[in-house]
Known about the structure:
alpha+beta, 4-stranded mixed β-sheet, 3 helices, 6 strands
Amino acid sequence: xxxxxxxxxxxxxxxxxxxxxxxxxxxxxxxxxxxxxxxxxxxxxxxxxxxxxxxxxxxxxxxxxxxxxxxxxxxxxxxxxxxxxxxxxxxxxxxxxxxxxxxxxxxxxxxxxxxxxx
Length: 118
């Protein structure tokens, strides 16, 4: 099930058609939750998609147009999660990206698939 039918459907279509994507899944009932705090209250962030590139790198992909302080807290938590998982080294290599415009996601994922992990 897609949260924002137009944007997420468009991104899913681009992921499906991409030559750099081995496979992807909508993060729905996968149990992939990233804990974060916002103004002292605990929350869980569920990125929209989990993508595996052909080179074996995994990408947490969030589709979000406008965002505010709460989204910034989510995104910072995702970056910390990625850094921790990459440092641990037992779950492969990971990256995180926020797609702000589904019209450019094809270019973004092609670029990301070729970048060293930050």
